[in-house]
Amino acid sequence: MSRNAESTAFRSALEVIRAVEPRVADAIGAELTDQRESLKLIASENYASPATLLAMGNWFSDKYAEGTVGRRFYAGCQNVDTVEALAAEHARELFGAAHAYVQPHSGIDANLVAFWAVLADRVESPALKKAQVRQVNDLTEADWFALRRELGNQRMLGMSLDAGGHLTHGFRPNISGKMFDQRSYGTDPATGLIDYDRVAEAAREFKPLILVGGYSAYPRKVNFRILREIADSVGATFMVDMAHFAGLVAGKVFTGDFDPVPHAHIVTTTTHKSLRGPRGGMVLCQPELADQVDRGCPMVLGGPLPHVMAAKAVALAEARRPDFADYAQRIVDNAQALAEGLLRRGAKLVTGGTDNHLVLIDVSGYGLTGRQAEQALLDSGIVTNRNSVPQDPNGAWYTSGIRIGTPALTTRGLGIAEMDQTAELIHTVLAQTTAGANADGTPSKAKYTLDPDLADKIARQATDLLAPHPLYPAIDLS
Ligand code: DSN
Predict the structure, then answer these.
(1) Is it the case that residue 136 has pLDDT exceeding 80?
(2) From 18, 92, 130, 279, the catalytic residue
(3) Strands (E), 274-353
(4) Distance of alpha carbon 315 from the chain centroid
(5) Which CATH number fits the domain that encloses residue 332?
(6) Would you list the DSSP string of 236-260?
(7) Domain containing 383: what range?
């Protein structure tokens, strides 16, 4: 394929769009410029390949395909079957999973499918059994009432939000926190690490139906063998949400006890973070849960997005190539270099470092809230997100942390030397930012002062750092 093919494809697409609504074409072009020019350190973002992006921009988007491969509620799904089966095959092979379901539209959707599958499989519900074998119309009002009572209020034990767990692991702003009776396990206050003895103790006391492993802001490996043993000891189903680190599992950086797939009954993920695919989700599971997982649409999900499943098949095929393992290792090498660079300059890091793709800076060490630090960094061309730290005194809105991750910059080809320079830019901004005050003189959690000339200088240095590593080098929209 010539390098020109990518340029031609995207330029032609924009020409077609521009003829209908030029402002959309302009915004798509502007987004490429912004992404090219900013130092993207959001741990959950990446850059999908041109092939993955192009697989989404076509008439597969026009097809309804509720159901699963070979068992659809609509006619004419033979080509959707082809791409869905291919994506599932690549996912099974890549992760060594017994079953893969590639329809979820996001990580939240993947988790909802998993919750449904576990409830349907595990809860002793005579009413549900009736509902599954009889025509819906045969159920009485009393049956429906019993079904809701039997499925509701089941127990879930997951990692606490401020220790790095995700909203969907039973927290109030998400439906999981409203439908489950939830308890959390945190981290050791001294080390910031998961204390497996405390998890076992919480599981013994609480006896959850589902033990959830996985995180969105924990900078260390998790021992999934131990968590499975804990789940087994209390009869819980073990679910892992590997959305953040799926790329490290795919690239065989996390193996043995640290690979969730052989240990968990059910694994959920997004496809767009370290896995570098299209925006979407996926569920992997052991055979006994496969039938319930495959009911995801229309049980929990809206109609599948065939164009995104096509892109998942492309991205998963890319992740099966040998160079993906090299990419995954470089993500971790870069995160460790970034952590070391920050530590050397005096930053305070949760757990004192990282084993994965992310670093959590406790910005209270700079006298700032997460909100102040996030905005000051953004003023300086560095895109990050604020995040709680364990036992965060500033809560989930202002926070005391900044989460940074290396999947995106690693895709662009930045390496260890550039990570040290990145640490210097971040440290300089945070050290030169001062917290502001409210009108009544009380400390503000949002206001801050940063010399605009310094912010501009850092933004230029960030652009210089990126210049030798152009994003989508083969794509020229001019
Ligand atoms: N929004 C994702 C993240 O940034 O980690 C998780 O949902």
Answers:
(1) no
(2) 279
(3) 281-285
(4) 16
(5) 3.90.1150.10
(6) PEEEEE-TTTHHHHHTTSS-GGG-S
(7) 325-466
Check whether residue 369 and residue 445 sit in a common domain. Answer: yes
Q: Is residue 101 part of a domain?
A: yes
pLDDT over 70 at 373, yes or no = yes
**Confidence band for 467, pLDDT divided at 50, 70 and 90:** very high
- Please give the helix or strand (H or E) that residue 309 lies within, else none: helix 306-319
Report the run of H or E that residue 293 belongs to, with start and end. helix 290-293
Statement to judge: residues 184 and 65 lie in one domain: yes
What CATH number is attached to the domain comprising 303?
3.40.640.10
Tell me which of 64, 195, 229, 333 is the catalytic residue.
Answer: 64
Q: Which residues line ligand 1 (CB under 6 A)?
A: 44, 107, 166, 216
Q: Is residue 459 part of a domain?
A: yes
DSSP element (H, E) containing 358: strand 358-362
Atom of ligand 1 nearest to the CA of 244: 5
Give the span between the Cα atoms of 271 and 106, in whole angstroms.
8
Same domain, 291 and 402: no
SS3 state at 28: helix
pLDDT-wise least confident of 164-173, 334-343, 367-376: 164-173
> Helices 224-233 & 196-206, crossing angle to 10 degrees?
20
Last residue of a domain, one of 292, 319, 346: 319
The number of distinct structural domains making up the chain is 2
The answer on pLDDT for 1 being more than 60 is no
pTM to 2 decimal places: 0.96
Is 241 an active-site residue?
yes
**Domain co-membership, 346 together with 289:** no
Both 309 and 353 in one domain: the answer is no
Q: Do 199 and 305 share a domain, yes or no?
A: yes
* Smallest CA separation from ligand 1 atom 4, residue: 44
- Specify whether 66 is catalytic: yes
The pairing of strands 281-285 and 99-101 is antiparallel
Strand partners, 282: 269
The string of pLDDT tens digits covering residues 306-349 is 999 999 999 999 999 999 999 999 999 999 999 999 999 999 99
CA nearest to 311, candidates 26, 60, 30: 60
Cβ within 8 Å of residue 327, ≥6 positions away: 247, 251, 276, 410, 411
In a domain, 37, yes or no: no
64 is catalytic: yes
Shared domain check, 176 and 292: yes
Give the per-residue pLDDT at 478.
86
97 domain-assigned: yes
Verify that 351 and 459 share a domain, yes or no.
Answer: yes
Instruction: Tell me which residue has tokens 């099966």.
Output: 320
How many H-runs (helices) and E-runs (strands) does the chain carry? 20, 16
In three-state secondary structure terms, 427 is helix
